[in-house]
Amino acid sequence: MHASIHWLLLTLALPRVGLSAIFIVSLISATLLPLGSEPAVFGFVKIAPHMFWAAVLVATLGNTIGGAISYAMGLGAEKAYERWREKHPEKIHKKAGGRWHDYISYWLHRLGPPALFFSWVPVIGDLLCAVAGWLRLPFGPSVFYMALGKFLRYAIMTAALLWFFPGV
């Protein structure tokens, strides 16, 4: 059992490519693709404990850039929708299911960019970044709060995993 866990950690740490792998995995996991970057960060830090802060910072950078990409995708989708709506006004009709959009829009406009502190939450966070772009929340403050939440998530989660699994 111990050997298989050790093998898994070595595989997830990707020691041949190190921090660049952490960056790529973190960036991809911040998009709408279902991928978690925490195992790669934890595995890398287990193999190279002296690289804890470097791994956390690189993962934060990659994950924040991924969140900014989701933000840009939301912004682009909103612009495309507005262009389509201008060309096809006869096809616009309000559906009863539009209430969730009104509620999320109200909530995000009310909280503003600080709501993106929660962009680290699985599933919801990726959508939160895209919706922030759709609603055209200010980009700079949005990215700041994304980075803050993601940094705290990586630092706390990696430290907690190291504490819970010290001898792995």
TrEMBL record:
Keywords per UniProt: Membrane, Transmembrane, Transmembrane helix
InterPro entries in the record: DedA_domain, VTT_dom
TM region(s), chain numbering: 7-32, 52-77, 115-137, 143-165
Domain VTT: 51-158
Source organism superkingdom: Bacteria
Protein name: Membrane protein YqaA, SNARE-associated domain
PANTHER family tied to this protein: ALKALINE PHOSPHATASE LIKE PROTEIN (PTHR42709), INNER MEMBRANE PROTEIN YQAA (PTHR42709:SF4)
Pfam families: VTT_dom (PF09335)
